[in-house]
Design goal:
heterodimer; A: about 270 residues; alpha/beta; Rossmann fold; 10 helices; B: about 250 residues; mainly alpha; elongated
Chain lengths: ~270, ~250
C-alpha cells in the first residue's frame, strides 16, 4: 500500500447471490492524483464505488478510506467520512423537487448553520465554476444531461471534499459537454488538490487526464500503470480493451449454446 | 404443506419483519425530523391540502346518501327526527374515518409511494446517503408525519361536510324539522363516539402512511417495480383499513 493512499482497497471479495463480482481486488487512490478505474461493462465498477462509500460491505478484504476500514465504521463515523467525499452520479441524481440553486445548497444546509448570504455566495461560486450560474433558478427537469451532470458536480464540490468520486462521468455526453467535464475534472484536481477516482470505460478520454489507471476484468485487476504504460502493455486483455476488439480474452457474447443448433431448434 | 406454500409463508413472514423493522427505524427518524417543521408542513400540504377536493366532494355525497337512506329507513318506524343522530353517528364512528382512509390511500398514498420509488430509481436516495444525509430522516419521516397529521384533519372535514350533506337532504329536501335534526344530534352524540372516530383516523393515518412510505422506499428501482409498489400500497392500505376498523370497533364496544 502506498503511504499516501487516501482510498485503499485490499484483497476484496464480494459476491451477489453467490455470483462473485470481485475476487481479490487491490486498488489504491493516492492523495492529489486522478486514479482511473476502467473495465468492460459488468465488471463491478459501480459496485466498487458503493464499497468505497460504505453503501455495501466487502465479504472479505479491507476497504479503507482516510486510513479507516469502512466496514468497521458505525453509522455516525460513516456519515462523518462521507462528508469528506463528493460523488458524481452517472445520471446526476439531482433532487427533482428543488431547483438548481437549492440542489447545490442542499449539503450545505444539511450539514452547516451558515447564514443565508454566505450560502448564496458559496453556491454561486460553485455554479460559476461549472458555468451554470445563470441556470440557478431552473428545475432539474429543465436541464440537458450534460448540464445536470455539471450541476451535480457543483453539488459534489460544494462542501470542499478531499476525495471526489466520479461514476461514468462521460457516458452519453456530446463532444462539447464531454470536453467541459474532462477539463473540470482536471481543474478540480489541479486547483483544489482533490484526490479523484474516476470509473469509466471511455479509454481515450480518461487516459488524457488520469495519473494512474487500473483495468478490471472478471473481478480483479488485470493491469495497472500510467496511461502510457497501459498503452504499451502486451497483455491481451489490455490490448483488447484499448482497441475495442470483439475477439479476445473478454467475451463479447453472453454464454449460449451453439448458434446453428439453436436456429434449427423448433420454437418453444 | 407444499414447498411453494412454505416459501410463500416464509416470504410473508420476512416481509412483515422488514416492514416492522422499517417502522422502528422510521419512528427513530421522526424525532430528529421534528426539528425541521418546514419539511413536515410541506408534506401536510401535499398529502392533506391536495386531497381536500376529493375528500370534500366524497363527504358531501356520502352525507347526502345517508340523508336519503336514513330518511327512508327511519320513516318506516316514524322516527325521522332521529335522522341527524343516525347520520352523525354513522359518519363519526365509521364512514368518516374509513372512507377518508380509503380515499387517502388512493390519492395521497399512491403519490407518496411513486414519488419515493422514483427517487430510489433515479438514485436520489443513494445520492443523499452519499452526501451523509439520512433519507429516512429527510424523505421518509416527514412524509410519514405529514400523512399522520393530515388524516385526522381530513376525516374531520369529511365528517363536517357529510353532516351538512345529510342535513341538506333531510331538512331542506325531505322536510325533517331543522331544530329537531340538530338538537337530537347534539344530545345523542357522546364524547366516546367522537373519540372512537379520532382514534380510528389516527390509526388509519399511521398505517396508510407507513405502508405508502415503506412500499416506495423498498420498491424495485424500475418502472415496473414502482408501478407494482403503488398498486400494493392501495391494496394493502384498503385491506388494513377495513381489518383494523373491525378490530377498533370491537375494542370500543
Amino acid at each position: 500500500m502506498p503511504d499516501d493512499a487516501v482510498i485503499d482497497v485490499r484483497g476484496v471479495h464480494y459476491a451477489v447471490d453467490g455470483r462473485p463480482i470481485f475476487s481479490g481486488l487491490d486498488i489504491a487512490a493516492r492523495r492529489g492524483l486522478i486514479t482511473a478505474v476502467m473495465g468492460p461493462s459488468g465488471t463491478g465498477k459501480t459496485t466498487l464505488l458503493r464499497l468505497i462509500t460504505g453503501q455495501i460491505y466487502a465479504d472479505r478484504g479491507v476497504v479503507s478510506v482516510f486510513g479507516r476500514d469502512v466496514g468497521t465504521l458505525g453509522s455516525r463515523e460513516l456519515y462523518a467520512t462521507r462528508q469528506r467525499m463528493g460523488m458524481l452520479f452517472q445520471n446526476g441524481a439531482l433532487l427533482t423537487d428543488i431547483d438548481v440553486f437549492e440542489n447545490v445548497a442542499f449539503p450545505v444546509r444539511q450539514h452547516t448553520d451558515l447564514p443565508e448570504p454566505l450560502i448564496r455566495t458559496l453556491v454561486l461560486t460553485k455554479l460559476e465554476a461549472v458555468g451554470l450560474r445563470g441556470a440557478a433558478h431552473l428545475m432539474p427537469g429543465e436541464l440537458s444531461g450534460g448540464m445536470a451532470r455539471r450541476v451535480a458536480l457543483a453539488r459534489a464540490i460544494v462542501m470542499d471534499p478531499e476525495v471526489l468520486i466520479y461514476d461514468e462521468p462521460f457516458v452519453g455526453l456530446d463532444p462539447i459537454s464531454l470536453g467541459v467535464i474532462l477539463r473540470l475534472i482536471k481543474q478540480m484536481n489541479d486547483a483544489l488538490k482533490i484526490t479523484s477516482i474516476v470509473v469509466s470505460h471511455d479509454v481515450h478520454e480518461i487516459a488524457s487526464i488520469a495519473d494512474y489507471s487500473y483495468l478490471l476484468s472478471e473481478g480483479r485487476v488485470v493491469d495497472s500503470g500510467t496511461p502510457a504504460e497501459l498503452a504499451r502493455s502486451d497483455s491481451p486483455t489490455v490490448r483488447q480493451f484499448m482497441t475495442g476488439g470483439a475477439e479476445g480474452p473478454v467475451r463479447f457474447h453472453y454464454p449460449a449454446k451453439d448458434y446453428a443448433a439453436e436456429l434449427l431448434e423448433s420454437p418453444r | 404443506m407444499s414447498a411453494a406454500s412454505k416459501t410463500g409463508v416464509m416470504e410473508a413472514v420476512r416481509k412483515t419483519g422488514v416492514t416492522g423493522l422499517f417502522f422502528v427505524r422510521l419512528l427513530g427518524a421522526c424525532i430528529p425530523a421534528l426539528a425541521r417543521p418546514k419539511l413536515i408542513i410541506a408534506q401536510i400540504y401535499n398529502a392533506g391540502a391536495r386531497s381536500l377536493i376529493i375528500i370534500m366532494l366524497s363527504g358531501l355525497f356520502t352525507g347526502m346518501v345517508l340523508g336519503l337512506q336514513g330518511y327512508e329507513l327511519l320513516n318506516r318506524f316514524g322516527a325521522t327526527e332521529a335522522l341527524g343522530t343516525a347520520a352523525a353517528l354513522a359518519l363519526l364512528k365509521e364512514l368518516g374515518p374509513v372512507l377518508t382512509s380509503l380515499l387517502f390511500a388512493g390519492r395521497a398514498g399512491t403519490a407518496l409511494t411513486s414519488e419515493i420509488g422514483l427517487m430510489r430509481a433515479t438514485d436520489q436516495l443513494t445520492a443523499m446517503e452519499v452526501m451523509a444525509v439520512d433519507p429516512l430522516r429527510y424523505v421518509a419521516a416527514p412524509r410519514f408525519l405529514g400523512g399522520l397529521i393530515a388524516m385526522p384533519l381530513l376525516t374531520a372535514i369529511f365528517n363536517g361536510i357529510g353532516l351538512f350533506g345529510a342535513q341538506l337532504v333531510g331538512v331542506q329536501m325531505l322536510g325533517v324539522d331543522h331544530g329537531t335534526f340538530w338538537s337530537q344530534t347534539q344530545s345523542a352524540v357522546a364524547l366516546k363516539d367522537v373519540t372512537e372516530g379520532i382514534v380510528k383516523s389516527v390509526v388509519f393515518g399511521a398505517v396508510v402512511s407507513l405502508i405508502a412510505v415503506n412500499e416506495g422506499y423498498h420498491a424495485d428501482p424500475t418502472a415496473e417495480g414502482v408501478g407494482l409498489a403503488t398498486t400494493r400500497t392501495v391494496v394493502a392500505s384498503s385491506v388494513m383499513t377495513l381489518l383494523l376498523d373491525y378490530v377498533l370497533t370491537a375494542a370500543f364496544m
